[in-house]
Write a sequence for this structure.
C-alpha cells in the first residue's frame, strides 16, 4: 500500500523522497522585521523529522509593504539572507527539501499591518479588508517585478531548494490575473495575455536573477468563487501560459479572501473536495501538479495519486495536527496518526480573530516544540486523573508517556465527555477520530482506566496520590424560567446523545455554539426548528469559516432565528418571549431544548485543594471554554509533573 504516495519524484531539479507536501500556512512565528527565530525553525524542523518530502514555507514578503500579517518572514534585503539560511540546513539534515513561497499581499492587507496604504492593480477595496488601495503605476509595477526577482535571488542564496510564487488566494499576483480585481485598460489589464504580463515578467526576472535551473512552483486558485472571478476554464489557460513561461510545477488551490471559507475549508466541507480543479489543470500541462484542500488521510491521498488527478498531495492542516504523518504512514502505524478534524480553532481563529501565533487544537506541541518537550520524569509519581473528557485524557497520555503511574476515572460508561457529543451535528463526524486517537494513546502508555466510577474525596485520600488532576468538566445550566420543569423540556446534550425523543416542532433556547449546532442537527432530522437568543447574533463563539457554513445550513433548512429575545416562560405548546419590551408567544413546539451554557463541576477540587498532594484543576472544570483550551491545559498539566 502507498506505493505512489511513498515513491520518489522530482520537481525541476529537486529530487523528493515522497509525494507528501506541506503547503504554505501562515503561523505568525517570525519577528516583526521578517527575520526567523527558534520557534519558527523548530516548527518546520518537526515536519522534516516527520518525513514530509517537500516543505513550502509560509509566504515571504518581498518588501515590508507586502506583508499581510505582522510576523511573517521576509527577504526584502540582503541582511535577511544569513538568518534565513538556517532553515534549509535543518530541513536538509533530515532528508527533506524546502521551498520558500514569496508574495505580495496587494489589497488584502491594511495600513495597520504595513504602515502604508495597500496597493493593487485597481483602486477597488478587498471586500474583507475594506481599505481602498492605491492603483499601481507602470513604474511601480516594474519596481515590484524587480523586487520579486531580488527576493527569489535571496531565497536561492539562503540555500532553499526552490521558490513558490504565490499567485493564489486573491493576493497581488492573483489580483492582476483576475477580472474580479483587475480593471486596468493598459498593458497589464483587459485580455488574458495582458493580465498575465505581470506574472510572465516576474518569472522572467526570477530566472534572470536566480538562474534558469532554480525550480519555480506557481500557486494558483483553480476557482476564485466570487462574481467576476476566475473559474477553472480560464485557470487552465493560465496554466498553459505558466508552462510556456517556464515554471516547474503548478500548485492548485482555490478562493480569495472574499471566499476564504474555500481557502481554509472547515469540517463541513467534503474531504478532498478541490481535487478535481487540480485534475483539470493536469489535463492541459505536462508539469507536475500539486493538489490541496481537506486531504487528511494517507489512504485518500494514495487514491488521488492512483486516479492520476495530481502528482503531489499537499496536506497543510494535517501536518499541523501530526507532523509525523508520513513516517507513521510508511511504518504502517495508521492508528497512531493524529488526524486533523477541520476545527480551524488553532490554525484559524487564533491568528485571525485573536491576533495570536497559530497552533493546533489537537496538538499543543505545534508551535511549542521548544517549550513542550516530553522528557522522562525525574521520579515516578502516582497520578490520579478525575474526568475522561479530552482534557483529562490528554493529561493522562502525557503524564504516562513521561513514565508516571497514571489512573484515569470517568463516571460515565465511555470516554470523551462533552467533546464526544460534538461529533453528532452535521459535518462534525471527524471529531470521533481524535477520541479514538486518545484512547489508543491511553492504551499504548499503560494508563489504568476506571469507567462508570464517580470519584469522592475519600476515594482520593485512600489512594494516597502524589498528584491529582481534576478534569471533571461541566454541567448544563438549568435556567430559572417558569415551566422549565415541564416534561417536554430537555437539554441539548440529551438531544445530541439520543437519550430523549424530540417532537416535530422544536424551540431551542440559546443560540451559542451548542444551541446553534443542536438546532442544525435537528433541522437535518427534518424537524421544524426555532432558535431564541438573547444577544444580537447567534453562534458567535464558532470559528468564522465554520460559522459561515453553519449559517448557510440553518438558512437552507429554514430554521427560524429570533435574536434580542429573552424567554420569560415555557408553555405547554411554546415559549413566551420578550422582544423590544413586548411579550410574544413563540410556537407551537412539541419540544423545548435548553442550551444556555454550562457551569464548571469543581466541587471535588474545592474539597481536595487543601491536601498535601499536588492538585490541578483543568478544562471546563476550571472554566467553561472550548476544546482548544481544554486540550492544551491537559497537555501542560501532564507535562509539568516531575
Amino acid at each position: 500500500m502507498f506505493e505512489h504516495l511513498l515513491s520518489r519524484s522530482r520537481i525541476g531539479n529537486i529530487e523528493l523522497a515522497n509525494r507528501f507536501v506541506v503547503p504554505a500556512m501562515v503561523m505568525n512565528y517570525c519577528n516583526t522585521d521578517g527575520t526567523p527565530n527558534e520557534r519558527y525553525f523548530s516548527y518546520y524542523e518537526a515536519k522534516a523529522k516527520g518525513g514530509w518530502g517537500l516543505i513550502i514555507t509560509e509566504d515571504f514578503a518581498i518588501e515590508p509593504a507586502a506583508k499581510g500579517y505582522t510576523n511573517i518572514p521576509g527577504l526584502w534585503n540582503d541582511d535577511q539572507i544569513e538568518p534565513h539560511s538556517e532553515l534549509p540546513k535543518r530541513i536538509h539534515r533530515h532528508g527533506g527539501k524546502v521551498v520558500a513561497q514569496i508574495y505580495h499581499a496587494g489589497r488584502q492587507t491594511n495600513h495597520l499591518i504595513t504602515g502604508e496604504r495597500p496597493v493593487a492593480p485597481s483602486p477597488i477595496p478587498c471586500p474583507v479588508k475594506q481599505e481602498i488601495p492605491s492603483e499601481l503605476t507602470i513604474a511601480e509595477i516594474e519596481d515590484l517585478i524587480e523586487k520579486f526577482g531580488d527576493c527569489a535571488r535571496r531565497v536561492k542564496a539562503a540555500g532553499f531548494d526552490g521558490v513558490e510564487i504565490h499567485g493564489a488566494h486573491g493576493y497581488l499576483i492573483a489580483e492582476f490575473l483576475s477580472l474580479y480585481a483587475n480593471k486596468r485598460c493598459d498593458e497589464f489589464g483587459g485580455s488574458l495575455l495582458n493580465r498575465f504580463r505581470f506574472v510572465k515578467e516576474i518569472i522572467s526576472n526570477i530566472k534572470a536573477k536566480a538562474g534558469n535551473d532554480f525550480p519555480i512552483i506557481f500557486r494558483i486558485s483553480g476557482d476564485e468563487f466570487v462574481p467576476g472571478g476566475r473559474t477553472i476554464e480560464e485557470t487552465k489557460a493560465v496554466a498553459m501560459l505558466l508552462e510556456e513561461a517556464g515554471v516547474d510545477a503548478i500548485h492548485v488551490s482555490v478562493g480569495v479572501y472574499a471566499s476564504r471559507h474555500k481557502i481554509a475549508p472547515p469540517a463541513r466541507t467534503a474531504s478532498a473536495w478541490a481535487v478535481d480543479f487540480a485534475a483539470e489543470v493536469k489535463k492541459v500541462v505536462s508539469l507536475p501538479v500539486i493538489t490541496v484542500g481537506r486531504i487528511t488521510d494517507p489512504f485518500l491521498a494514495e487514491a488521488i495519486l492512483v486516479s492520476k488527478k495530481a502528482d503531489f498531495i499537499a496536506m497543510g492542516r494535517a501536518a499541523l495536527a501530526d507532523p509525523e504523518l508520513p513516517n507513521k504512514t510508511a511504518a504502517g502505524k495508521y492508528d497512531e496518526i493524529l488526524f486533523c478534524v477541520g476545527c480551524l480553532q488553532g490554525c484559524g481563529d487564533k491568528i485571525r480573530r485573536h491576533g495570536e501565533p497559530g497552533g493546533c487544537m489537537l496538538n499543543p506541541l505545534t508551535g511549542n516544540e521548544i517549550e513542550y518537550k516530553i522528557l522522562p520524569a525525574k521520579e515516578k509519581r502516582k497520578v490520579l486523573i478525575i474526568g475522561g473528557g479530552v482534557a483529562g485524557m490528554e493529561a493522562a497520555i502525557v503524564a504516562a508517556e513521561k513514565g508516571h503511574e497514571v489512573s484515569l476515572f470517568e463516571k460515565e460508561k465511555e470516554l470523551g465527555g462533552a467533546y464526544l457529543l460534538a461529533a453528532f451535528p452535521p459535518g462534525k463526524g471527524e471529531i470521533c477520530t481524535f477520541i479514538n486517537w486518545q484512547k489508543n494513546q491511553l492504551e499504548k502508555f499503560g494508563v489504568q482506566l476506571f469507567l462508570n466510577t464517580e470519584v469522592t474525596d475519600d476515594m482520593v485520600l485512600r489512594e494516597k496520590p502524589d498528584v491529582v488532576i481534576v478534569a471533571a468538566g461541566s454541567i448544563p445550566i438549568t435556567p430559572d424560567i417558569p415551566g422549565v420543569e415541564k416534561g417536554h423540556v430537555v437539554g441539548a446534550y440529551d438531544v445530541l446523545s439520543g437519550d430523549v425523543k424530540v417532537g416535530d416542532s422544536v424551540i431551542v433556547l440559546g443560540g451559542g455554539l451548542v444551541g446553534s449546532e443542536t438546532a442544525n442537527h435537528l433541522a437535518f432530522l427534518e424537524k421544524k426548528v426555532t432558535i431564541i437568543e438573547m444577544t444580537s447574533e447567534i453562534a458567535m463563539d464558532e470559528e468564522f469559516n465554520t460559522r459561515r457554513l453553519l449559517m448557510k445550513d440553518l438558512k437552507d433548512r429554514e430554521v427560524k432565528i429570533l435574536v434580542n429575545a429573552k424567554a420569560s416562560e415555557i408553555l405547554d405548546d411554546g415559549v413566551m418571549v420578550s422582544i423590544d419590551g413586548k411579550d410574544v408567544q413563540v410556537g407551537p413546539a412539541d419540544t423545548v431544548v435548553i442550551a444556555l451554557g454550562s457551569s464548571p463541576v469543581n466541587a471535588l477540587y474545592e474539597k481536595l485543594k487543601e491536601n498535601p498532594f499536588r492538585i490541578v484543576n483543568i478544562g471546563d472544570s476550571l472554566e467553561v471554554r472550548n476544546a482548544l483550551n481544554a486540550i492544551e491545559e491537559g497537555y501542560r498539566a501532564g507535562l509539568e509533573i516531575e
